[in-house]
Q: What sequence folds into this?
């Protein structure tokens, strides 16, 4: 999985460093780094924590990872996006 640039953009839009973000949500910097580098896929609980901390819906955060995982980076339409 490639680096999740969109996630990094959200993090750096609110926090100076990934370490600051990790400290805020009670995770290790290594966990944030593994997720944002695409080396670890977040589970449902991780998605909830990320969404809450970044002021996004779980669907929006999940979509970031789905796009990153897609071989052609296609746009996914989630139920959340359809409802809006």
A:
């Amino acid at each position: 999985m490639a680096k999740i640039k969109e996630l990094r953009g959200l993090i750096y839009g609110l926090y100076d460093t990934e370490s600051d973000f990790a400290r805020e949500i009670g995770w290790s910097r290594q966990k944030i780094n593994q997720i944002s580098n695409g080396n670890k896929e977040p589970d449902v609980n991780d998605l909830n924590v990320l969404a809450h901390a970044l002021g996004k819906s779980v669907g929006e955060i999940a979509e970031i990872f789905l796009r990153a995982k897609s071989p052609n980076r296609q746009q996914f339409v989630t139920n959340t996006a359809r409802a809006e």
